[in-house]
Amino acid sequence: MNAIKNTVLALILGMVILFTVSCDPAGPNNTGTEFMPDMGHSLAYEANVYGDIRESNNWDEESTFKVKDLSGPRLPVNGTVPRGYAGISASTGSEVTEMMDVLNGNAPNAVYTPKNGHVGYYYADTEEERTRATAEVIDNPFPIEDARLKEAKELYNIFCGVCHGEKGDGNGYIYETGVYPAAPANFLSEEFIAASNGRYYHAIMHGKNVMGGYADKISFEERWQVIHYIRVLQAKETGTEYSETANTLNASFGIPRASMVKAEVHEENHDEAHAEDHGADHGQHASDDHSEGAH
């Protein structure tokens, strides 16, 4: 009898201890312990705290994240096209101008669309892929616009000029003072003036030698605008023009906005003339049918 009584007491005591341990109460800086953590009860965490949630919860290794990782900004899935950018990189001519006018709120009934600039880039950080990008990435998807070039100048001076120089000659502040051990690329040399847009874009994405990548610092459009501005510096060096009205540096590097506008006007005039001709032909056919009916 005593043995049974002792066994029951032991079981009760064990259950009390188990219940106490499994229901660790939460405190001001402690989320407590959950026996079965799931989406039924969210675990609150404090921003800018580098602790580990596993310290007070029974989550497995794969389901646990550092609080600093959960508190920081997260990138979208690679290849995600932000709202508004769909189709621009694959478009040419007046299509690009029309899309950008809509996105920037410069078209009838259009509202400015914020763009986060995360666009997939499918060339790896290897020399083989660098060569492939140099050969395949040719067209700048954005037209040459004076307003955008002013913004690109500021971006260039912030991210590029300290090394490559404000003139693009490779004599930036960091290199001139001896802080930077390797000579930065001279964008005004014949090699870089002739280089394709892809060579610049790949370097911005992945970096080159001791230069790090800038994919996380400037957006999709900003990268291409910086490349436009580099072409402006090259045009000054060669005595050519690279602006909204003309591109005598190299036609493959970029399309001036003015030429796109002219193409749009020509296309509209052509459509109107075609419509008038079609209407005249239709009227002539009607007149001929009426004449035949009279006979």
Which band does the percent of strand residues land in?
A: under 5%
How many beta-strand runs? 0
User: What does the average pLDDT come to?
Assistant: 78
| The first-level CATH class name of the largest domain | Mainly Alpha
Write structural notes for this entry.
There is one protein chain. The protein is mainly alpha-helical and 295 residues long. The protein has 3 domains: 70 residues, no CATH class; 41 residues, no CATH class; 135 residues, Orthogonal Bundle (Cytochrome Bc1 Complex, Chain D, domain 2), CATH 1.10.760. 47% of the residues lie in helices and 0% in strands. It is built from 11 helices and no strands. Helix 4 packs antiparallel against helix 9 and helix 5 packs across helix 10. The longest helix is centred in the C-terminal third of the chain and has 38 residues. The chain is elongated, with a radius of gyration of 32 Å. The mean pLDDT is 78.
Keywords:
295 residues, mainly alpha, Cytochrome Bc1 Complex, Chain D, domain 2, 0% strand
How would you briefly describe this protein structure?
This protein is an all-alpha fold. The protein has three domains: 70 residues, no CATH class; 41 residues, no CATH class; 135 residues, Cytochrome c-like domain (Cytochrome Bc1 Complex, Chain D, domain 2, Orthogonal Bundle).
Q: What is the strand and helix layout of this fold?
A:
Layout: H1 2-22, H2 67-71, H3 94-103, H4 127-136, H5 146-159, H6 161-164, H7 173-176, H8 190-194, H9 197-206, H10 220-238, H11 257-294
Helix pairs in contact: 4-9, 5-10
